[in-house]
């Protein structure tokens, strides 16, 4: 369906905006609230995408909107380097206490997840005086030169954009459903982590390595979730060689897995943590939080940026933290995860196309396969499923190297009725795909 208003907009979009910033759906949104988006023709969509993991507390949460308006009435920008303000420092203090680690921490702010990752790498290299960075297959860390180099998938993120940043080394991630070593759990134990010791022999010396960077649950890579033994072993090896462990929580953080940070599920204390996306409820803001003895090493003026830690974004983030903890949205996140796991595992039993259900909390995914034995990716079926869901009023996203993984990133404020309707649409659409 289209209207004159919609057609006029799309014609302008085609003539004015390049194809590079692609559109996942054809929706043109007029307004949004909670877990529902409404397009310019008045059609409602239940949102299982959350702005790609940005709207954990929902679209236009009243407390976040109020914080934005209040700060905008005071001042919009000074540049923290020119004129400091309390929201920056207060937010840093709160994150220092929320990020795991029984040691003193410090936080700096930037604008995007990619900027946070870039700064974390800069800090690790400065502190260790080493250049090498180890990242992982299936990982996604951004689209800038350095973060695109860290990102694994070639199309669409890296294709044609080389040459890439040097001293980037990539090793297999613990993708148990498609084990890169051909092993099966539980026999493999921590082989994927132990492999780092061998990797030091064949790829990069540990004395040359500044940091290992990993997503606790891979986002664009397919919501790949390591076994419980993995991160403790990886952290142990990093500590042995004085290598910084950077945990990228850009998509998995801000309560998305039922805990404030996903790495808390593994009980380790990273040297550096990056956050963005849902941290400020839709405003551009990212953070690097880490050990004080690492964060405070770079010289004055070596870190920062004109817009980094904008006062409106910091105020929005303070409101997000209040909503998450004081308004019990963390508890809601856990409850959502339990409901989703129950519904998805039930779907898996009745739909052969679902090869695996994985993730933590409401950060869950369905990997679609043509055959459970061969695990051949059901890429076209995933595309068809997304389109059918859209036609029925549900926005859902795919991910993974083959685009065959359906992921859930709905706002925590979604009502039980909206959740049930969305899941019913998803299951009905699955049945249509499987016919």
Automatic annotation (TrEMBL):
* Superkingdom as given in the UniProt entry: Bacteria
Q: Which Gene3D superfamilies match?
A: Aspartate Aminotransferase, domain 1 (3.90.1150.10), Type I PLP-dependent aspartate aminotransferase-like (Major domain) (3.40.640.10)
**UniProt keyword Oxidoreductase, yes or no:** no
What's the cofactor?
pyridoxal 5'-phosphate
- Which molecular function term from Gene Ontology is one that the record holds? 4-aminobutyrate:2-oxoglutarate transaminase activity
Instruction: Tell me which Gene Ontology terms the entry assigns under biological process.
Output: gamma-aminobutyric acid metabolic process
Ordered alphabetically, the record's keywords are: Aminotransferase, Pyridoxal phosphate, Transferase
Q: Which InterPro entries match?
A: 4NH2But_aminotransferase_bac (IPR004632), Aminotrans_3 (IPR005814), Aminotrans_3_PPA_site (IPR049704), Class-III_PLP-dep_AT (IPR050103), PyrdxlP-dep_Trfase (IPR015424), PyrdxlP-dep_Trfase_major (IPR015421), PyrdxlP-dep_Trfase_small (IPR015422)
- Enumerate the SUPFAM superfamilies for this protein: PLP-dependent transferases
Keyword Cytoplasm attached: no
Q: Name one Pfam family in it.
A: Aminotran_3
Q: Which residues cross the membrane?
A: none
What family does this belong to? Belongs to the class-III pyridoxal-phosphate-dependent aminotransferase family.
Q: Which PANTHER family match?
A: AMINOTRANSFERASE CLASS III, LEUCINE_METHIONINE RACEMASE
Official protein name in the record: 4-aminobutyrate aminotransferase apoenzyme
What is the protein's species of origin?
Desulfocicer vacuolatum DSM 3385
Q: What is the lineage of its organism?
A: Bacteria, Pseudomonadati, Thermodesulfobacteriota, Desulfobacteria, Desulfobacterales
């Amino acid at each position: 369906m289209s209207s004159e208003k919609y057609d006029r907009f799309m014609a302008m979009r085609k003539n004015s905006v390049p194809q590079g910033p692609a559109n996942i759906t054809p929706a043109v949104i007029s307004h949004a609230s909670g877990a529902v988006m409404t397009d310019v023709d008045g059609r409602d969509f239940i949102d299982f995408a959350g702005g790609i993991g940005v709207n954990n507390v929902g679209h236009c949460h009243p407390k976040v909107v109020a914080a934005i308006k209040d700060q905008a009435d005071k001042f919009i920008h000074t540049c923290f380097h020119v004129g400091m303000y309390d929201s920056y420092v207060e937010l840093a203090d709160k994150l220092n206490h929320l990020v795991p680690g029984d040691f003193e921490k410090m936080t700096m702010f930037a604008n995007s997840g990619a900027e946070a990752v870039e700064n974390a790498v800069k800090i690790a290299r400065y502190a260790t005086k080493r250049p090498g960075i180890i990242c992982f297959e299936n990982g996604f860390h951004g689209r800038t030169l350095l973060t695109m180099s860290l990102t694994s998938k070639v199309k669409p993120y890296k294709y044609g954009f080389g040459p890439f940043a040097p001293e980037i080394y990539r090793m297999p991630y613990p993708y148990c459903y498609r084990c890169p070593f051909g092993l099966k759990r539980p026999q493999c134990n921590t082989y994927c982590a132990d492999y780092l010791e061998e990797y030091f022999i064949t790829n990069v010396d540990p004395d040359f390595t500044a940091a290992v960077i990993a997503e606790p649950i891979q986002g664009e890579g397919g919501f790949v979730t390591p076994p419980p033994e993995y991160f403790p072993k990886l952290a142990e090896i990093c500590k042995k060689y004085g290598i910084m462990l950077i945990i990228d929580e850009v998509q998995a953080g801000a309560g998305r897995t039922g805990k404030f940070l996903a790495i808390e599920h593994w009980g380790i204390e990273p040297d550096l943590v990056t956050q963005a996306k849902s941290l400020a409820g839709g405003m551009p803001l990212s953070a690097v939080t880490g050990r004080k003895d690492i964060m405070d090493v770079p010289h004055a003026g070596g870190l920062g940026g004109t817009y980094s830690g904008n006062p409106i974004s910091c105020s929005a983030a303070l409101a997000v933290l209040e909503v998450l903890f004081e308004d019990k949205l963390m508890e809601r996140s856990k409850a959502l995860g339990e409901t989703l796991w129950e519904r998805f595992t039930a779907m898996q039993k009745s739909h052969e196309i679902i090869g695996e259900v994985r993730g933590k909390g409401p950060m869950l995914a369905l990997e679609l396969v043509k055959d459970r034995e061969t695990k051949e990716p059901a890429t076209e079926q995933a595309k068809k499923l997304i389109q059918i869901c859209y036609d029925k009023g549900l926005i859902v996203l795919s991910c993974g190297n083959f685009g065959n993984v359906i992921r859930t990133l709905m706002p925590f404020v979604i009502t039980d009725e909206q959740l049930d309707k969305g899941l019913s649409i998803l299951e009905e659409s699955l049945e249509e795909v499987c016919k």
